[in-house]
């Protein structure tokens, strides 16, 4: 069951609050003060909102109330929200967790943030991330460790972990984050909220770059990376996506890229393919059970359900191709001395060494010739997805093999996760991020249940390229039928 959703509830959706603001049942100033009070009351335990901009938020709320009084109609006018620390927001630091970057001046908003503000959103501050956004835990030397509202000893996920924790704790109804290796999807799964990784290139990236790096040009997009919304309802994902999607141009605020409508408006009409197991990493009993339950519910609701298809792209091939391109992407951003050292290390490897570490080292220094060949494989896989989605509407699959895991501050190479008692390498959690990321497929994450020890479990809804309304629309229908967000214990009021 959804938490109480009257206009002044901490767990109201952005859609509900926007309607209440338009009807003048509540003011933006009241909503912003309520959010600030909740952050100040609870964030000592969570440490989610690490860059606070409360004074400017209060001023923006007063301006929103004046605009509402004049009868202005903007989708998010007066609605409070937070954004990921990695986004440039004029007047606030952007550090990506790197010490020494706190005082670099930021004079312009990331274009997506500018569009959210233009739609009337009131940005209260920025949420915590891991160092260089490179972990499924959100901790760094500047801002410290963010905890999961469901269990303070566990991670909220990463790299958009602070945002997911803020949503689950009822601070704000809306957050905006990024995703390369599940950085939107994993925190949503770990914290029991919704997230949407848009189709590649749908939401422009300009203004999203590591501190001190020139912002991307108007036409550039970062390979594999997507930026998108997080919320406590599927309808709010559409609301945020609609105001941020569209071509990157200086005067393109509000301009939409053509996204077709959802394939179906009735749940029973969906053709649903379920993938519960990955050849590279086991799926925990808790995650399998939650996915099986939703599969059973969907079948009883009339959906066509499938588990086997010769059209499904090979998950092993996806993992190999994704791993190559991901390592090449991260290697391309390394300082020259580090890159040269890796080149020497790769050259010294035995040709017979196919260990994960060896493969990763080679991929980080891959030649352009080999990158093009790997990119060709990506295009082949994209065509396979097109053929698959002619027969099926959505794919349901895990986000990670397990629910949220305990904080682990060991060196990444020494970390392991436990899957029903079996210890596996920490980075194998990335396997479920690849199918949607590699070819830019949209993926909506929604909560579907709980483990035996009370931790939330989510699933991915992956769909055809640019058919973001289909995956979100499916999530809306499933949420309506089977329930969605539930407030964490100790944060219900």
Indicate the topology.
Elements (H helix, E strand, L loop, with lengths): L13 H9 L5 H19 L2 E4 L1 H16 L10 E5 L26 H8 L3 E6 L11 E2 L3 E2 L15 H8 L5 E6 L5 H7 L2 E4 L28 E6 L2 H11 L26 E4 L10 H16 L3 E3 L8 H17 L4 H13 L7 H9 L3 H21 L5 E5 L17 E4 L2 E4 L8 H5 L4 E8 L5 E7 L5 H15 L11
Parallel strand pairs: 2-3, 2-6, 9-10, 9-11
Antiparallel strand pairs: 1-3, 4-5, 6-8, 7-8, 7-14, 11-15, 12-13, 14-15
Helix pairs in contact: 2-3, 5-6, 7-14, 9-11, 9-12, 10-11
Describe the structure.
This protein is of the alpha/beta class. Among the domains are: 14-266 and 473-482, Amidase signature (AS) enzymes, CATH 3.90.1300.10; 315-386, no CATH class. The protein is 35% helix and 14% strand. The chain contains 14 helices and 15 strands. The protein has an 11-stranded mixed sheet with strand order 1-3-2-6-8-7-14-15-11-9-10, with helices on both faces. A two-stranded antiparallel sheet has the order 4-5. A two-stranded antiparallel sheet has the order 12-13. Strand 14 and strand 15 (456-462) form a beta hairpin. Helix 9 packs across helix 12. The chain is globular. The relative contact order is 0.13.
Parts with pLDDT < 50 across at least 5 consecutive residues = 1-7, 251-255
Strand content: 5-15%
The global form is: globular
Named CATH architecture of the domain at 14-266 and 473-482: Alpha-Beta Complex
Structural class: alpha/beta
The count of DSSP E runs of length 2 or more, i.e. the number of strands, is: 15
List the secondary-structure elements in sequence, H or E.
HHEHEHEEEHEHEEHEHEHHHHEEEHEEH
CATH class of the domain at 14-266 and 473-482: Alpha Beta
- Average of the residue pLDDT scores: 93
Helix fraction bin: 25-40%
